[in-house]
Design a protein that fits this description.
13 helices, DNA polymerase, domain 1
């Protein structure tokens, strides 16, 4: 089995067996291709079945000199997944990364915006153009529903259930969830949909896609990143942000204002509550509010010495 064949089989496994998205499959493939490139650069002719511990460790040492610990850990995780697949399919009987320890990275807290900063970014969008109305509706949706950028660009008209104040979102692994939507967000989307989008020429196959570019196709992820960064620059908030910043801000502001962590987990589409718990570390004022409200020793009758 050569690398090309192994990688193609692995991609099929990720898509069909694990139900991963195209973006996730691309990321996993990138890690394997990086190992392939290493073998080519060092003129090492070892197949996926033959490659040994020493070669993989040499690769990891080289990676450690080129990228940050968090990126190292991600690459090692990606390769672990690939060789686990080979073990699962009985192509190998040993795991070449068995003795390789990923670097300790700690938990990285997400960058968030304050409520005032969100307002400034939204107001900085020039709504005098059709694209401006579209951009305002997109950012309102990112912040109002906590969507990932891929969920935003893939959102369809048929996913909108405004009478019930919900939208249907297709997340990672093509898993669907219902997310409540605020009236203010509905107003901005309806204005774009009924006053701007109806006047656009729409390419075949994109009739149901909500947010379109000037050519009548779905917006790319890169374009959404550009729109967000330009709005942040015009707002003068002094932060470099991405579409995901609105998702982080959505979760943090809900938690700060007393929302239940489980409800936030469901709206974000997190498979594990552990992923959602990172927002507990962003604003600790929520913890003070919980203990002052619910701890019995904070009751008036217990304040006397």
């Amino acid at each position: 089995m050569n690398w090309e064949q192994a990688l193609e089989d692995y991609r099929n496994y990720l898509r069909l067996e694990r139900g991963l998205s195209a973006n996730s499959i691309q990321n996993y493939s990138r890690d394997v291709n990086r190992l392939r490139k290493f073998l080519e650069n060092h003129q090492l002719e070892e197949s996926p079945i033959e490659i040994g511990h020493e070669t993989v460790q040499q690769f990891v040492y080289e990676v450690a000199t080129e990228v940050a610990p968090r990126s190292q850990a991600r690459i090692i995780s990606g390769l672990n997944s690939f060789f686990n697949y080979l073990l699962f399919e009985d192509y190998r009987r040993d795991h070449p990364l068995e003795l390789v320890e990923p670097p300790k990275t700690g938990r990285k807290l997400p960058v968030t915006l304050s409520e005032n900063e969100v307002k400034r970014v939204l107001k900085a969008i020039d709504r005098s153009t059709p694209e401006g109305e579209r951009n305002r509706a997109m950012l309102e949706l990112l912040y109002g529903c906590g969507l990932r950028v891929s969920e935003l660009t893939g959102l369809r008209l048929s996913d909108l259930f405004f009478d019930e104040q919900f939208i249907s979102v297709t997340g990672k692994g093509d898993k669907q969830r219902l997310v409540p939507i605020l009236p203010i967000t509905i107003r901005h989307i309806n204005y774009y949909r009924l006053q701007v989008r109806v006047h656009q020429p729409i390419r075949k196959g994109f009739e149901d896609i909500l947010f379109l570019n000037r050519r009548g196709r779905a917006l790319s992820r890169a374009m959404v990143f550009t729109i967000v960064r330009e709005a942040a620059l015009r707002s003068g908030i002094g932060k470099t942000i991405s579409p995901h910043t609105f998702r982080h801000s959505f979760a943090t502001h809900l938690l700060t204002n007393g929302a239940d962590l489980r409800a936030i987990q469901q709206m974000l589409g997190h498979e594990s509550i552990t992923t959602t718990e990172v927002y507990m570390h962003v604003d600790r004022s929520h913890l003070n509010k919980v203990i002052s409200t619910y701890h019995p020793r904070n009751k008036a009758s217990d304040k006397a010495l």
